Amino acid sequence: MLRWKDIIYYAKYGNPEPYEKVEKTEEEWRQELTEAQYQVLRQRATEPPYRNAYCRSYEPGIYTCAGCGQMLFNATEKYHAISGWPSFTQPARRGAIRYTFDDSHHMQRIEAICNVCGGHLGHVFNDGPEPGGLRYCINSASMVRLQDSCEG
Ligand SMILES: [Zn+2]
């Protein structure tokens, strides 16, 4: 289980190795992604609170990266954070996400980035539920939810 000290360590000293790397030109991303996906993943935009696909959705399944398809989160780690964006307590795998300090918008935050394709996902905070205490605040447009075939 990842805790806040792990996140800080990764942001400061280096992130876990990705399982694989997907690299594309900005032109390729523009063609393959929808406008909303492109704005979030490649331009680091934040979608409006509550008016996004997975904010109030708690169906089972896995959330994959809209850019590269790797598994980011399991729906079992999703919880109601009253933030307006889908929120998770843990990533699906330790190496799925990388972390970097983000000082934009006059805030000190830690940005969550897809470790495979480098797409912007959202931010991670230390006010999540115990025992891990993490809150991954993620843009819906950066993810695609797949139904878990094991449960269907
Ligand atoms: Zn990705």
What does this protein structure show overall?
The protein is α+β, with helices and mostly antiparallel strands and 152 residues long. Helices cover 16% and strands 25% of the residues. The strands form two sheets. The chain has a six-stranded antiparallel sheet, with helices on one face. It has a three-stranded antiparallel sheet with strand order 2-1-9, with no helix packed on it. The longest helix is centred in the N-terminal third of the chain and has 10 residues, at 4-13. The radius of gyration is 14 Å and the shape is globular. The chain binds zinc ion.
Q: Report the major sheet.
A: 6 strands, antiparallel
Mean pLDDT: 94
Structural class by helix and strand composition: alpha+beta
Figure out the total of helices: 3
- Side-by-side strand order of the widest sheet: 3-4-8-7-6-5
Radius of gyration, in Å, reads: 14 Å
Sequence of secondary-structure elements? HHHEEEEEEEEE
Helix content: 10-25%
The tally of beta strands, per DSSP, is 9
Q: Report how far apart the termini are.
A: 27 Å
> Ranges with pLDDT <50 over ≥5 residues?
none
What is the general shape?
globular
Range of strand content: 25-35%
Hetero compounds = zinc ion
